[in-house]
From TrEMBL:
Taxonomic lineage: Bacteria, Pseudomonadati, Pseudomonadota, Alphaproteobacteria, Sphingomonadales
Top-rank taxon, per record: Bacteria
Biased composition annotated in UniProt, kind: Low complexity: 48-70
Organism, as annotated: Sphingomonas sanxanigenens DSM 19645 = NX02
Keyword Endoplasmic reticulum included in the entry's annotation: no
Listed name of the protein: OmpA-like domain-containing protein
Length: 231
């Protein structure tokens, strides 16, 4: 009896320890898959998860169809009334005119002028650094690793990207420039460690000089690291 109680207490202790470990593992999962990054950078539509459709009605069984046919036969009592056939129906011309198909030639769209109205594809890596830190840990590290896998896919293999660091306007301009550069270079070094060629990745920090459209420089949304598709 005493031995059983010890095993019960030990199992309870293990369960209590396993809960926070599972929660930590869940927090360290990347929020986007490599295919998500590919779709965002290339502008392709990501395939949606197939939705479960309504169940189709079951096919009638042989016994059910046989019984239904027997009832119909019984109700008609064997009599079948046929419509008289007009022998001249096949010779009469169709009074409706044949439709006329109008073919419009496809005209090629003019190519945009170089550098005019063409925005470089970019994606926010959604990295939540600690205040004043450029260290990638936990979920942020998994996010960058997922992006590294995206850069190895056929759609992005060989393409060059620029990692851009941005901050809000809290603090001095010099300190924010330094911090934004350190964060961008931390992402670049992680991508290189994941097997991406160094000549495919540039890094730059802009501090709070480039806030998001519609956001004040002091807004927290400006604290971000973006990957820009260069070519």
């Amino acid at each position: 009896m005493e031995l059983d109680m010890r095993f019960t207490l030990l199992a309870s202790a293990i369960a209590l320890v396993a809960v926070p470990v599972t929660a930590i593992q869940a927090q360290e999962q990347a929020t986007r898959s490599p295919s998500d990054f590919v779709c965002e950078l290339t502008g392709e539509e990501c395939p949606a998860e197939p939705a479960a459709g309504p169940e189709s009605p079951a096919a009638p069984t042989a016994s059910a169809t046989g019984g239904r046919a027997a009832r119909v036969a019984g109700e008609s009592r064997g009599f079948v009334l046929a419509k008289p056939v007009d022998p001249n129906a096949a010779k009469r011309p169709d009074p409706r005119p044949a439709p006329i198909r109008v073919v419009t030639p496809n005209r090629p769209k003019p190519a945009p002028a170089p550098g005019v109205g063409v925005a470089q594809p970019r994606v926010d890596l959604r990295l939540g650094f600690s205040t004043g830190s450029s260290m990638l840990v936990g979920r942020e590290l998994m996010e960058v690793k997922s992006f590294a896998t995206a850069l190895k896919t056929p759609r992005l293999a060989g393409r060059r990207v620029r990692i851009e660091g941005h901050t809000d306007s809290v603090g001095s301009r010099e300190s924010n420039l330094t911090l934004s550069r350190e964060r961008a270079y931390a992402v670049r070094q992680t991508l290189i460690a994941e097997g991406i060629a160094a000549d495919r990745i540039d890094a730059a920090g802009y501090g709070f000089d480039r806030p998001l459209a519609g956001q004040r420089a002091s807004a927290g949304a400006n604290r971000r690291v973006e990957a820009v598709l260069v070519n």
